[in-house]
Every structure is written in C-alpha cells, then in structure tokens.
Specification:
Layout: H1 17-23, H2 28-38, E1 41-42, H3 43-49, H4 55-67, E2 71-76, E3 82-87, H5 89-92, H6 95-104, H7 108-128
Length: 129
C-alpha cells in the first residue's frame, strides 16, 4: 500500500527537497562546481577560486561534503603536510544537474526583467494608495 500525500509530512512531500537541501545549501554548490571543473584542489586553491568564502566556512563545508560522500579528502604525510580535496564519484553524478542549471542560466536576464516589472508595478500601486 502506498502513502497518500496527506500522510506524508509537508517537509517530505516534495521528493527533491532533501536533494535541494543537500546540494544547494550555502557554499556547497560553488565548492562542488569548482572541484568538478578544476579537479583535485588544495585548500588554498579552493580559497583563491571561491573568493568570498571565509577559511572557517570553507573548512566546515568541506567536512560536511566529505561526511556526505560528495568530496574525498586526501592527506599526504609529508613535510609540510599536504591535503587535497576532490569531488567523489557520487559528487560527479551531480554534473548533469549542474550542466542543466548552467544551460538554464540564460534565463537570468528574463528573471531580472520580471523583477524590474514587478517592482515598477509595486511602486505604482503604492503611489495610488
């Protein structure tokens, strides 16, 4: 017997919600995209490529992504020690999703225009009241 939508908690009713929470949480997408595009990276390389992230947040996100199985951390016991990060096979499986989103990004001008139109209508309606 299958569950009906009314029996499913609202936060689970949308099957993609957990994926969105996982993949599109703050900083996850730029980190995964960078590792997918540029391959294995040292921490400092990631920091240089994602210029607006703080070292503390980058460390936190990389740990979470490693825990989620989307990133692989490799420690090289040399002097000085070297740590590298790369996207895992599971993380690479998101590449088609990123490609689709990149294709859709051509619509961002339309989103901008829609926002401007909305704001203009909103300003006009406030002037009348």
């Amino acid at each position: 017997m299958t569950e009906t939508t009314s029996q499913v908690p609202p936060e689970l009713a949308c099957p993609i919600a957990p994926v969105v929470d996982l993949v599109f949480s703050r900083w996850t997408t730029p980190i995964l995209w960078t590792l997918n595009e540029f391959g294995r990276q040292r921490f400092s390389e990631l920091e240089r490529r994602i210029t607006t992230i703080t070292p503390k947040v980058l460390t936190q996100r990389l740990r979470q992504l490693e825990r989620d199985g989307l990133v692989v951390r490799t420690y090289h016991p040399e002097v000085p020690p070297r740590v590298e990060y790369e996207i895992s096979a599971l993380g690479r499986s998101l590449a088609p999703l990123f490609a689709t989103l990149a294709e859709w990004s051509v619509n961002l001008d339309k989103v901008d225009q829609a926002r401007q139109d909305y704001d203009a209508r909103d300003r006009a309606s406030h002037r009348r009241t």
